[in-house]
Sequence to fold (125 residues):
Amino acid sequence: HVQLVESGGGSVQAGGSLRLSCAASGNTDSIIVMAWFRQTPGREREGVAAFYIRGTSIVYGNSVKGRFTISRDNAKSTLYLQMNSLKPEDTATYYCAASHYIYLSDSFLPGEYAYWGQGTQVTVS
Fold:
C-alpha cells in the first residue's frame, strides 16, 4: 500500500506562484507514475501533470503547459508541482496520485490510479 500526503496549497493573487509537495510512503518502490490532478465542485477531476519515475516521460495538461513544472526528489520520494503565472481558473483542490502500472496514453484517467492523497486547496484571486 502507498500513502500520499500533499502540502503547499494556499491563496495567491493572479500572476503569483505556489509549489505543491506530495510525500509518498509505504510500498513506493513499485510505483511507476505519480501525477497531479485538480478538481472544482461539480466538475470532473482534471489531469494536470504526470511524472513517469522509471523513464523520462513527463506529461502536462494543455491548460498548464509552460506555467507548471512537475518534478520528483527520488531520495525523498516526494513529488512537486511548481505553479507559476497562476490564473483564477487554476483555483481548485489539487490531488496527488500514484500508480503501479499505467499506459502513457492513460496518464490523465483518474480510474487508472490506485492511490490518492487527501487534496490541498489552491485559491487564485
